[in-house]
Amino acid sequence: MPVTDRDFVMRAVKQLAELLARALKLKCDEKYDEAAQTLEGGAGDLLGLDFGALALVDSASGAQLLGDVQRIRTFAQLLEELSAVHRAAGDEAKARARARHAHEMYGEALRRKADDAESAAGRERLRALF
Question: What whole-number distance in Å separates Cα of residue 9 and Cα of residue 23?
Fold first, then answer.
């Protein structure tokens, strides 16, 4: 049975949901370092690229490396959740930096697909956080 684009997207969405659930549980248990490591470590499996490398480059370059809107949005979602972890841990500077980066990545997704409602909603959620 051939794997379709829909199958690939559904599998990626499921993996992201599982990763975010693990990180949320750790955050609720106040295991902030573990939550951040979980999110950063999961990027490789979800995106095929190392989180550290993506976090070091500017947003336009990161979006170019990621290629498609789904992967760009996924990276933005990871950054957004990392922002929440850092905020819960009391590190406001890191939280603002991750929120800003997530906002930029959602913007990159919107540049590629102007009607991407999830990216637009992400930008709106983050607007007041930095």
Answer: 21
